[in-house]
Amino acid sequence: MTDQATTQQAGSGTDAIPAQPGPRYEDDRSVIPGAGPAPRPGERATLRLREAGTDTDTEADEPARYAPEWLQLREPADAFARAHDLLDPLRIRLANLPRRADGFIIHDIGCGTGSMGRWLAPRLDGAQHWVLHDRDPYLLHFAAVASPRSAADGSRVSVETRRGDVARLTADALSGASLVTASALLDVLTREDVDALAAACAGAGCPALLTLSVAGRVELTAPHPLDQEITEAFNAHQKRGGLLGPDAATAAAEAFSEHGATVRLAPSPWRLGPEQAGLTAQWLRGWVGAAVEERPELAEPAGRYLAERLEACAAGELRVVVHHSDLLALCRPAGGAA
Predict the structure, then answer these.
(1) 33/249 Cα distance (integer angstroms)
(2) pLDDT tens-digit profile of 58-100?
(3) Helix (H, G, I), strand (E, B) or coil at 106
(4) Strand partners, 329
(5) Segments in the chain forming alpha helices (H)
(6) Nearest to 25 by CA among 60, 78, 77, 71
(7) What is the DSSP string of 233-284?
(8) pLDDT score recorded for residue 335
């Protein structure tokens, strides 16, 4: 499949994500399709790396994994969680790049509704051109419409959308890139996928900021005897089919290091309290549901567990810490400079 690209200037005058055609998910007892950290059986990331030359026509027409409602629900928690400590070394690297007339070129892989751009673009100085990659045309539309208009210093931000799997995410495809970003993506890739991503970034000499990879650790108040068992079952579910799941950040750090990059890891936990009850409830259903799918014998006790946790959530008594990791890989600039 040939990527379909459209280019437009960011800034529609609204930050709202437009409504998606089709059914809405207003019953808070149901799970938004694609919600929670668990993929449906046999599904992969919204956008995945593939071997060059692979026929992607069939996959490009598959339903997307993530619903806009879920991405919008989690966006505030994502923004609060991302590791701000990684921004200063990234800014230093970008400031040392040769100045381009069109500004920094930033590729956002698996962009969803564009939350990474809305978070990062206003925190960086200088003109920016964002290349947003996703295979879902609805999500790409939302990402373009709700993208920021200006950088931290008021410089112009523009957007280009590309639909399709990143079958051609090679060093050549990233030639001229200033930065590659992704959010909540690494844990739904395989080790081969991550190796390919690291090789492409290293070959192009561009840094990568890869945020919100699940770490496999969850803290809920008050502790419950089933917490650990459900966590272990969920983590096993996340690693089905060779996916990295909670090993993603470590595997990515190793892959980038092997390609000569300087790698920094930082925690980026969701901290969910009464103000995030809607997100917490959806996350709980996805988390427990994946554990039961992995270990069906948990169904009865996990059902009671989920009901108790949801009751505490509705009463404003539940607090949850969902641990994630952010990674900044500073690849050697193209040409071999230190």
Answers:
(1) 26
(2) 444 444 456 788 889 999 999 999 999 999 999 999 999 887 8
(3) strand
(4) 208, 263
(5) 57-60, 68-81, 87-95, 115-120, 137-145, 191-204, 227-238, 248-258, 277-294, 299-314
(6) 71
(7) HHHHHHTGGGB-GGGHHHHHHHHHHHTT-EEEEEE--EEE-GGGHHHHHHHH
(8) 60
